[in-house]
Write a structure and sequence with these properties.
globular, Mitochondrial_ECH-domain, ClpP/crotonase-like_dom_sf, Enoyl-CoA hydratase domain-containing protein 3, mitochondrial, alpha/beta, about 260 residues, Lyase 2-enoyl-coa Hydratase, Chain  A, domain 2, 6-stranded mixed β-sheet, 3-stranded mixed β-sheet
Length: about 260
């Protein structure tokens, strides 16, 4: 891999215990080619193994957050069903890795996030968008329904809102995305990085062990029946109480002092 290819996605510390992963190919509108997906997967694995990172921000360089799959690459594979299936499966694997990552992930979104780019936003745990950001799943406009982006989208927003985006392919505003649950906060564009980092630092001040337990429980219980979810999360909470950080947190609260987290 060349230095230029390695720099297509950068990883750095943005603040204490906060990592920032930046899509860095503005010339391709940060499109998710197979090479970009492979590199993104590598970066996420590195974040997972790095104990110094408690929260991850995913940002992008240039005027576009992510324009989805690289359509020139897709065009070059027309007629090669095996290659196209491999591309969509690899993308799906990366999105699932985001969900499985034992650390909260915040999308810092500016400009435009479309198709698989919108899927990337929806696959993150939280999202902060600049006020002028727009979102769409426009595959229907080119005869390619956004079926894989639909998976993440429908797990974020009400089915009727998701279906409207998928059937019309129209852009929606950042405020509309906030209304339907695709993003958590909308801020002035010039404050986007600052406000996203503030949110990340707030979350990073918590116990990393507790964050990992909570994130896994959040996604797993959502797939269960109500009774099963309560039964399983009761076990999760009981086991959580056995951790060093839970004991420290309760003692610190009773003793009216800041907790000293050990991640254990």
């Amino acid at each position: 891999m060349t230095e230029q290819q390695k720099n297509a996605i950068t990883l750095e510390m943005a603040g204490e215990s906060v990592g920032r992963l930046t899509l860095n190919q503005p010339e391709t509108r940060n499109s998710l080619s197979l090479a970009m997906l492979e590199l993104l997967d590598q970066r996420l694995q590195a974040v997972s193994a790095d104990a110094s990172i408690r929260v991850l921000i995913i940002a992008a360089a240039g005027p576009v957050f992510c324009a989805g799959h690289n359509l020139r690459e897709v065009q070059g594979q027309l007629g090669d069903s095996a290659a196209q299936l491999a591309l969509f499966r690899r993308c799906s694997e990366v999105m699932q890795r985001l969900v499985a990552l034992p650390k909260p992930v915040i999308a810092q979104v500016q400009g435009v996030a479309t198709a698989a780019g919108c899927q990337l936003v929806a696959s993150c745990d939280l999202a902060v968008a600049g006020v002028n950001t727009r979102f769409a799943t426009p595959g229907v406009n080119i005869g390619l329904f956004c079926s894989t982006p639909m998976v993440a989208l429908t797990r974020n927003v009400h089915p009727k809102h998701a279906m409207e985006m998928l059937l019309t392919g129209e852009m929606i505003t950042a405020h509309r995305a906030e209304q339907i649950g695709l993003v958590n906060r909308v801020v002035d564009d010039e404050l986007l990085a600052e406000e996203t980092l503030k949110l990340a630092l707030l979350i990073a001040s918590k116990s990393s062990r507790t964050l990992a337990i909570g994130k896994e429980a959040f996604y797993r219980q959502g797939e269960m029946s109500l009774a099963d979810a309560y039964d399983w999360t009761s076990e999760v909470m009981a086991k959580n109480l056995e951790t060093q950080d839970a004991r420290e947190g309760i003692c610190a609260f009773v003793e009216k002092r800041p907790p000293q987290w050990r991640g254990e």
